[in-house]
Design goal:
The protein is of the alpha/beta class. Helix content is 31%, strand content 24%. The protein contains 16 helices and 25 strands. The protein is globular, with a radius of gyration of 23 Å. The termini are far apart.
């Protein structure tokens, strides 16, 4: 069978890979398609009529998801000319058609590149060009940015739209699916074939594609899910992160498929909407960010949470006060966790009954972590340093020189500053770079700065994180105006915020803007953000 080897040929050189340890503990066969294990096998095991995906208006069984995924796989092969190894862009909020497309791509031997609904055309174009994507499947409600991206990038040859959560047969993809067989012979992929490219912006704003294998998908199920979350077949899993985030993918979808449980898919998942949905669907496991838990504390008494048994937090540091308040009001201990797109999912956490409030936890089974100095040497217990981790998954960037920065001496350096206590618990201190983590989102300051600089009134600017009780941090911009005597500064603040929202993903906009006379710089012209953070 003809294969597209672009992704495989653009893996980093083996000598730049992290050391992968404990792979033998999983004992996967040489040939492995993770969707066969997670979906096809579930139906073969007798779970075909069990609920799989839930929304406000419908329930898909495992058999329905399998059949729709099989039809889409036929469309990809027969109508769109996809071959194994092709990268397929997915654009959608969390809904059943998004999941069916995700499964279909892997069934056909492709590589999924999921993108958040909030991304703008410029950001989409960067992803398309970096991963050399020619085919996209998109929710029709996201067509505006998709079409603009297509007009700027001739590489993207085919965009097929579907009708979101309803699955209306009038959709283009649904029309192509009509009449396709409900059965499909999954491509017999290798365990170390690439199946996912997850993009992370990093600190420069230039997207980095992280490459993950079929076995990696199963490792987070057979590792973190099994050890920490411990889902049961009767569970109803819910959460707020988009499936384009590996936290959302692993938590909301993969953990449920692995346990033959069901997932609630929310297209809009504000804290208020999430809390209402937990009650409405009688959810038992929830995945969300600390910010959401803080907001939900305001209304927990108004809802029935008696069925909720597992609460997972990740995306940013979980404040001790939030953990304590949630435990007092609900009786549930939040399971904190640290993961990264590079590692695919959570690698430090604490299983129920082994939590130390305020600490992130310990390395999960088959992972190792330590604290090192700038030279990579371990530091004494209780000393703050850089977090280094290794395990059966690890960082592999798509054709990116930054691989050398993330992987050093065989260890993955996550960019987090931590310390470890005498009992082996890891305590988060701060980010070791300038990345802003706000309400669980990673925001690169240079990207916001570049957006602001496009405004005609901005001469210079710099963006930093400002601590915020509700969101962890917010984006704060320091701006030097072209006209320092401008009288309408309050109007300009609103204008700048709207301008940024219209050029990059809205969650990245500066919630605070301060006007200053000049941006502090080094002699070589580099912005000294630490001086701004201390203002």
């Amino acid at each position: 069978m003809t294969q597209d080897l672009f992704a495989k040929n653009n893996l980093p050189p083996k000598e730049q890979w992290p050391e992968l340890i404990n792979l033998e503990k999983f004992d996967y066969p040489q040939n492995l398609n993770c969707i066969t294990k997670l979906l096809d096998d579930a139906v073969d095991e007798g779970f075909g009529e069990s609920p799989c995906l839930r929304t406000a208006g419908q329930i898909w069984t495992y058999r329905q998801l399998l059949e729709k995924s099989n039809q889409i796989a036929h469309v990809l092969q027969e109508d769109l000319g996809m071959i194994p190894g092709n990268r397929i862009l997915l654009r959608s909020a969390n809904n059943p058609m998004m999941v069916a497309c995700w499964c279909a791509v892997l069934k056909a031997g492709g590589i999924v590149v999921s993108t958040m609904p909030l991304l703008r055309a410029k950001e989409l174009t960067q992803v398309v060009e970096k991963a050399e994507i020619t085919i996209a499947l998109s929710d029709h409600r996201l067509s505006e940015e998709m079409e603009e991206a297509g007009s700027k990038c001739s590489m993207l040859e085919k965009v097929v739209y579907f009708q979101g959560p309803v699955g209306d047969p009038s959709g283009e993809l649904e029309a192509l699916m009509a009449g396709k067989p409900f059965v499909f012979e999954n491509v017999d992929t290798a365990a170390d074939d690439i199946c996912l490219i997850a993009f992370t912006s990093g600190t420069t704003g230039k997207p980095k594609g992280t490459l993950h294998f079929h076995r990696d998908i199963m490792i987070i199920c057979d590792g973190y899910c099994k050890e920490v979350v411990r889902p049961r077949q009767s569970d109803i899993v819910i959460g707020s992160p988009p499936l384009a985030f590996t936290f959302g993918l692993g938590g909301i979808l993969l953990s449920a498929l692995w346990a033959r449980a069901s997932s609630v898919l929310l297209e809009a998942a504000s804290p208020a909407e999430l809390l209402k949905a937990i009650d409405q669907f009688r959810a038992t496991i929830v995945f969300t960010a600390p910010t959401a838990y803080r907001f939900m504390l305001n209304w927990v008494e108004d809802y029935d949470l008696s069925h909720l048994r597992v609460c997972v937090s990740a995306g940013e540091a979980l404040p001790l006060a939030t953990w304590q308040a949630w435990q007092q009001k609900t009786g549930i201990e939040i399971l904190d966790g640290l993961g990264s797109t590079e590692m695919l999912h959570v690698f430090i956490s604490s299983p129920p009954g082994n939590i130390r409030p305020g600490a992130t936890g310990k390395p999960i089974l088959n992972y190792e972590a330590r604290i090192v100095d700038d030279e990579g040497s371990p530091v004494p217990t209780g000393t703050v340093g850089l977090l280094a981790v290794r395990g059966p998954t690890g960082c592999r960037y798509l054709a990116d020189e930054r691989q050398k920065n993330y992987v050093r001496q065989g260890w993955n350096l996550t960019g987090d500053a931590y310390k470890v206590d005498e009992d082996g618990y890891f305590w988060y201190q701060a980010r070791s770079d300038d990345m802003i983590i706000s309400a669980g989102y990673n925001i690169a300051p240079p990207e916001v700065e570049n957006a602001l600089l496009q405004h005609e009134a901005v001469l210079e600017c710099a963006v930093v994180a400002e601590p915020d009780e509700e969101r962890g941090n917010i984006v704060k911009a320091f701006v030097v105006l072209r006209d320092p005597d401008a009288k309408n500064k309050e109007e300009l603040i609103g204008d700048f915020q709207k301008f940024v929202k219209n050029s990059i993903a809205p969650y990245k906009y500066p919630r605070k803007i301060e006007f200053i006379e000049s941006i502090p710089k080094t002699e070589t012209g580099k912005t000294q953000r630490f001086k701004l953070r201390n203002k």
